[in-house]
Amino acid sequence: MLSVNEAITTLLSQARCLAGSEACDLFEALGRTLAGDVVATIDVPPADNSAMDGYALRRADWAGAEQPLPLSQRVTAGSVPGELAPGTAARIFTGAEVPGSADTVVMQEHCEGTSESVRILHCPPEGANIRRRGQDISVGQKVLSAGQRLRSQDLGLAASLGVASVSVRQRLKVAILSTGDELVEPGESAGPGQIYNSNRFTMKGQLAAWGFDVVDLGVARDRLEVVRECMTRAAEQADVIITSGGVSVGEEDHVKDVVESLGSLDLWRIAIKPGKPFAFGQVLGKPFIGLPGNPVSVFVTLLVIARPYLLACQGIADTTVQPVAGFSGFAKKASQREDYLRVRATESGLELFPNQSSGVLFSACWGDGFVRQKAAEVIEEGGRVDYLPFGLFD
Amino acid sequence: MLSVNEAITTLLSQARCLAGSEACDLFEALGRTLAGDVVATIDVPPADNSAMDGYALRRADWAGAEQPLPLSQRVTAGSVPGELAPGTAARIFTGAEVPGSADTVVMQEHCEGTSESVRILHCPPEGANIRRRGQDISVGQKVLSAGQRLRSQDLGLAASLGVASVSVRQRLKVAILSTGDELVEPGESAGPGQIYNSNRFTMKGQLAAWGFDVVDLGVARDRLEVVRECMTRAAEQADVIITSGGVSVGEEDHVKDVVESLGSLDLWRIAIKPGKPFAFGQVLGKPFIGLPGNPVSVFVTLLVIARPYLLACQGIADTTVQPVAGFSGFAKKASQREDYLRVRATESGLELFPNQSSGVLFSACWGDGFVRQKAAEVIEEGGRVDYLPFGLFD
User: Quick check: B325 and A322 CB within 8 A?
Assistant: First the structure.
């Protein structure tokens, strides 16, 4: 069996960016992946400016609280100051450019000003309350890197550099396909022997949350020609194909036959729980991922195994998820496989959902994250464990 | 000064859900907020079914590996089995309904089968490999609660219950407005004294990431009548109004005057760093939040102070963010205010961005989270600290 790390590493070694690039208005760029670095072409701030509402002066001109300085100008944010006349002060506001020759700003709370002069009661050292040109960013600095996903603060930073449009990766097109004669769609009535198709919604939701363009091919009935036709369409329309269920050694599994006839398929045994049967191959040249059929197995393998590969295909550079330190509210014996336990953070530590069956998707809805129990690891109550809040997989 | 907790609690005590409800197709419900509970109307699974590909039998009928059982039926997923004839076995596949009277499933790896009979080499105990009716969810059980945001697994769970449409909160409409004569838009050229408007992008991106409907009113010039006109439109079009900059004691701040004339305004001094000046009030009956003007202050106060209130206005029940345990890679003296330090997780602990100025938004782009340094807390290198990955604020 492959370890989880080996499976991820093997997949990543075969991943390449499958998404082209396109220009994207900064207003629409949230969550998109940069196709090129963003390099500063201006200094931020572009000039020395005031960090306070107050008065700008040459520090050397201050002769104590009893010697008012005449006001020679008034500088608001957005206006262009002149050179500061010697022996004078300028009224100045937060964000306003500091006049030439002024070297200090005094906050107004330390001043008594009239419209004509100001008494400075306490004068801070030279340089105080001035934000320097280029303090935030200087020309030529790489501020955002190709392969990163744009968050709100990244948009703010790009905007602060005057960037109105960025080069991003086109959204990766991921086709999803469920198989099984027992599946009916929500809203329909389920007869005897039928179950509602939940994997389609879990997969579609999660892939959409990652920003992919989901090509939903619905449910293929368990007939060879139907599966073959669906799979061909998937390969024509998408960059990557994902299915759930249907890939095992069972007699009724046509997905395996179809993928092998249209491309190639490897069945992997990964030491992960839940989620053992995992398939990887290609269909008409497009990567194919076959997730297990059980709902929690789909959720776990999608987040843990498929995610890094899919993000790499999207052109995302860093696909790692760093666990955080958690403290277990439960004890658990060692397992032979790496176990992704559904837990919830509480005041008294991480609480385990009582039913960890791979059929019980409710465990993942009740929970807010995983405890990752490595193979052979014994979990002691109160002991430190690897905790992976679901939010870290976004 | 208010502590951060006091500020959040005070805001939350004044929050009420401002969003109406609407029906939403499950396919479109990712990230939406439930307006009502989802209660199971069916059992999941709806009937006992097989956890394996194998053979179903009455456990009592097994008389050892040397006594093959004739096959009386073949049950695939989706088909409806008959009662199991005594002294026989049924071929069965994963997910298929277990025939009546069968009480055990044997995995096929422990069998030698032909088309007519099966030799069971090892027979597990009665009840093995059967997933029981209602094991996942039973009728009447509340599985998803009003006020929770729908994640991919929640969509999967709702689907597994046959739910095709859910009642969700309409997206909260949040108006944003920047003020300042010094602001120019990305793509334009910035003259002397002018700076690019970054807060608009940070705010718009973050509010969109939370699923709100952003009403972007652009930039209001620093003139009373312009600000008044913008603020009136904001109150007409949105449920909540947010501005950045413009609310302080400076002479050039018209936002304060306008809000006071159209409604009411409190200026809060919150013991948070960065981000001290914070305003809360109402404009023509609509809640008004005035964030500070510095880019990191906007980011921090939006995530830490405004977020819980906004989510509550959206109808979201749990707005808390639970910090995780981190280990500091740096030492830092105590501060009088609660300090949200921009850090990055590394192998050797959390690394501090060297420039923590509120003007340097790059710190939040370089970083992956905050260390929350409580007032008067001393941070020791290697010591345990409260770490808040940005992903937790989603």
Answer: no
Give the strand pairing for B111-113 and B117-120.
Answer: antiparallel
Alpha carbon distance A291, A280 (integer Å): 9
pLDDT per residue over B79-112, tens digit each?
899 999 999 999 999 889 999 999 999 999 999 9
Residues 181-240 of A with CB under 8 A from B: 181-206, 208-209, 222
Residue B179's pLDDT band (cuts 50, 70, 90): confident
Give the closest residue to B183 by CA, choosing from B198, B171, B167.
Answer: B198
* Rounded distance between C-alpha atoms, residue B94 and residue B130, angstroms: 10
Q: Could you say which residues from 312 to 331 on chain A have a Cβ atom under 8 Å away from some Cβ of chain B?
A: 322, 324-327
Mutation choice for B interface testing from A201, A318, A347, A350 by most B CBs within 10 A: A201
Domains and CATH numbers, chain B: 4-17+171-314 (3.40.980.10), 21-42+140-169 (3.90.105.10), 49-131 (2.170.190.11), 324-393 (2.40.340)
Read off the amino acid at residue A186: P
- With 0-12 / 13-18 / 19 or more C-beta atoms within 10 angstroms meaning exposed / middle / buried, residue B5 is exposed
Structure confidence at residue B251 (pLDDT): 52
Q: What is the pLDDT of residue A204?
A: 97
Report the C-alpha gap between A15 and A287 in whole angstroms.
Answer: 9
Contact B78 A181 (CB under 8 A): yes
Asked whether A59 and A173 are in contact (CB, 8 A), the reply is no
Burial zone of A216 (CB within 10 Å; 0-12 exposed, 13-18 middle, 19+ buried): middle
B254 to chain A: which residues are within 8 Å by CB? none
Mutate to test the interface with A, among B150, B201, B358 (most CBs of A within 10 A): B201
Judged against a pLDDT cut of 90, whether residue B30 lies above it is answered with yes
Q: Nearest to residue A235, comparing CAs of A285, A190, A275, A196? A: A285
- Say what the ipTM of the complex is: 0.89
- Smallest CA–CA distance, residue B79 to chain A, in Å, is 5
Q: A180 vs B95: CB contact, 8 Å cut-off?
A: yes
* pLDDT tens digits along B373-391: 999 999 999 999 999 999 9
Q: What is the mean pLDDT of residues B206-218?
A: 97
Q: What is the pLDDT of residues A215-269, one digit of tens each?
A: 999 988 888 899 999 999 999 999 999 998 866 555 567 888 999 999 999 999 9
Which pLDDT value is given to residue A120? 97
Distance between CA atoms of A88 and A96, rounded to whole angstroms? 18
DSSP string, A302-343: IIIIIHHHHHHHHT-S------EEEEBSS-B---SSEEEEEE
Contact indicator for A199, A244 with CB cutoff of 8 Å: yes
Chain B residues within 8 A of A181 when measuring between CB atoms: 76-79
Partner B, chain A 51-110, Cβ-Cβ below 8 Å:
51, 53, 76-81, 93-97
- Environment class of residue A262 by beta-carbon count within 10 Å: exposed (0-12), middle (13-18) or buried (19+)? buried
**Residue B238 — φ and ψ, nearest 5°?**
-125, 165
**pLDDT one-digit tens code per residue, A299-330:** 999 999 999 999 999 999 999 998 988 999 99
Residues in A closer than 8 angstroms to B201, CB to CB, are 26-27, 152, 155-156, 158-159
Size of interface A-B (CB pairs under 8 A): 314
Q: Within the 329-348 window of chain B, which residues sit less than 8 Å (CB to CB) from chain A?
A: 345
Measuring CA to CA, how many Å separate A374 from each of A121, A266, A295, A335, A377? 64, 25, 22, 8, 5
